[in-house]
Amino acid sequence: MSEFLIVDSVVKTYPARRRTIADFILRRRVPLIYAVNGASLKLDRGRTLVLLGESGSGKTTLGRLIVGLERPDSGRILVDGEEVPYVGNKAYVNSKLRGKLQMVFQDPSSSIDPFMSVKEIVSEPLTKLHLSKNEVMKAVNEALELVGLDKSFLNRRSSDLSGGQRQRVAIARAIITRPELVVLDEPTSALDASIQAQILNLLVKLQRELNLTYVFITHDARVAKFIADYVAVMYLGKVVEYGSADDVFNEPLHPYTQVLLSSVPTVGTRGLPKTIIGEVPSAISPPKGCPFWPRCPYATDACKAVYPQRRIIENREVYCHIYNKG
Ligand SMILES: Nc1ncnc2c1ncn2[C@@H]1O[C@H](COP(=O)(O)OP(=O)(O)OP(=O)(O)O)[C@@H](O)[C@H]1O
Questions:
Q1: What pLDDT score was predicted for residue 266?
Q2: What is the CATH number of the domain that holds 213?
Q3: CA angle, corner 268, sides to 54 and 242, nearest 5?
Q4: How far is the CA of 58 from the centre of ligand 1 (A)?
Q5: Which of 72, 88, 154, 300 is the most buried (most CB within 10 A)?
Q6: pTM of the entire structure?
Q7: Ligand 1 atom nearest 54 alpha carbon
């Protein structure tokens, strides 16, 4: 695989709570949430990587790190050979990657001001680029056309649009800078099934026309199956399995992937456990060893003691002691 996107051993923590005066006086450390805990991935240009996992597995945090909306505590993220700058850093302004990385969120109404017109929303990423009015209008019209909205939408307010139209506007805003990589965070999960399919098809069309690379975040294995070239299954901040969508869906190797995908039709379910026992452990003090062991039917003493090393099995990366035997 060539390496347009490289995520290398990335860790991102957040304080689990605000530091109190008592913490300060007692010199007590605030516990940390390990949102992303040592994730590594690679992706070709023009392909779609799905980050798949339950709520709280670190998908959104990893997506935000990839576009520079968050800064990793350690590890590196490279796009096209350049280290992704944090958007709050001065270096961002002069970076080759400025405008080349965009993110689309699940619920456009939370990321879009309902009182702004479509024209204002879509042109927003161009505001600091010193373009003429004509150039901005040309770019807005092109972006709207690409997402299937005509000029009659230009002056409509986002609050007057349907969910599907609002998501098209959010996508137009993301592509107006002609990005190379777009992180799509559950872009269809707030939509009805028929609209969901339209937006997924639109994303596929745009990827082809604009040679976009996608990191697509979802907890929905069916959506993942539709859109993915590659799948990274995340659990408690870690990538537990990573491979081509065909491989991962046809023969999931990690016990967690097996359970996660066992509800999806056509997935091989030979001898697989059908349900996951218990709850996702806390990301504040993740269990020692493999984070999945408290819920894994195959857990052994080794799983409780040490995090499994990466094993490559027929082009697939998997982190599970089952495959470390022998
Ligand atoms: N800004 C933040 N401050 C504190 N904790 C955070 C912050 N952002 C994420 N977290 C925590 O990090 C962990 C991973 O969250 P994240 O949103 O990345 O997971 P996710 O897989 O995208 O889940 P969801 O689908 O629910 O958004 C969770 O425990 C979450 O509570």
A1: 44
A2: 3.40.50.300
A3: 50
A4: 6
A5: 72
A6: 0.91
A7: 21
